Amino acid sequence: MKKPLPIAFTAILAVVTVLLVGAGSDDTVPDSTLTAQVEKGDLPIEVDLSGTFVADNKDEIRMEPKKYRGDLIITKLVPEGRSVKKGDPLIEFDPSNLEDSLDEAGDEVKAKQVEVDKASADLEAWKIDFGRKNSRREVEATNALKDLNKEKEQTAFTLVDKQQGITDSENRLKDTEVDLEQLLQLYEERELHTSNENILIDRERRRLESAQRGHKKTLQEFELWKKYDQNREVESKQLDYDDKVAEVKKAAIQADADRKEKEATLAKAERALKKAQEKVDELTTDAGTLEVVSPRDGVVFYGSLGTDDGPNDIIIMGMGGGNDEMKVGGRVRTFQVLMTVASMDKLSIRMKAQEGDIQHLKTGLPVAIRPDAFPVLAIEGELTKVDQVASRTGFLSSVREFTVRGSYEGSYPQLRSGMNCRVTVRANSIKDCVNIPILAVFSEGNSHFCWLVDGGKKVKQPIEIGPSNGSKVQIKSGLRPGQTIALYDPSAA
Questions:
Q1: pLDDT in tens, 21-38
Q2: What is the pTM of this model?
Q3: Taking a C-beta distance cutoff of 8 angstroms, is the pair 478, 9 a contact?
Q4: Which domains, and CATH codes, for the chain?
């Protein structure tokens, strides 16, 4: 925007004007030539900006390989500034370094395949070994169960035998008691009292005592067997069986852990093999992109033309500018913009606006564009974008600038991306406002004043100013339409 001249400069300008006017034949300067009327009306606001033509339709060529990270040596290169058609060769690179990388990647694939085969064989061998050992453990557990059941049956048979022995012992005792009782009864009925009588009776009594002792012993032995021996072998066999079952379970748990470990080793080896194979595939793809062709009709520029909205990238193999090595035999790095193919048919304007101007700018405002290279060429256009966030003009600078974009209709073949231009933005007018020439405004500290002409006298009048269009300025308070003001500072005369 055209800003008011510094007050000190306007005062000097007024004095120079007085001197120039006073250089005539008459030393008297008519007040009418150094005064102006306070007016009321529309005040058109214009903002002058410096701009640059920018190609909208362009493609940035960047080498961003999938896997290759070495340098690239240029073997063929289209000259900068040449017009090309879509599909025309732009740049070719020496494939030697990439082919070496591809050979190394192939060797890595073979090594990873060996690791996979080894891990697979190790897993299969473990399965066979575990199956053999686990079968033996299951057979031993089965045999231990059989021995346990056999011992239980044998113990049951022994219990029956011992119970039968007690019964037999009881029967023998009863028989002996009956025999003695019958003998005594026989002798008593017959009244036989001989020496043999005592012998027979004593013998039967001894047999009875022996049978009693035998029966008692049998009972004692049965109680001891039940107390100490009945479950001893069963419990021992039960422990043997429990041990075998525990071994099977323990082996199954350990086997699950071993299997997972070996399967994980195999899976890791397979992933490494897959990754190595992907590297080969990606390097193979990279090898097929060492010849770059133009993605569009346009003009070739080395490096990036720059943009606010982000480039339309053609990623063949990062971000960056031009490169001094853009020549045949040059060694360029990956992850940088190598060249741009831009169409000159459609250009836009990129501008920077100061903080004081941004209040008057908005999309849709008409603009007049004058290229520096063709000053007689006037192009009508409009603003298409006004950034809402400012950026610094320098790292240590406090000045803020806003990026502004403009466009125009029509085609101008003589224009090229990167050319400078002057842009006048026709901002909205301030409607029906009081205004005076900017030469009549003077400053004192942070306040402004003008000289009011009243009956031949000049009175210092404080005023509050508003926006200016470079020649006139809005007066918010202090003056009214029709008043006369001086265009110079009489106190400096």
A1: 443 333 333 455 589 999
A2: 0.51
A3: no
A4: 7-56+345-492 (2.40.30.170), 70-93+291-342 (2.40.50), 101-268 (1.10.287)
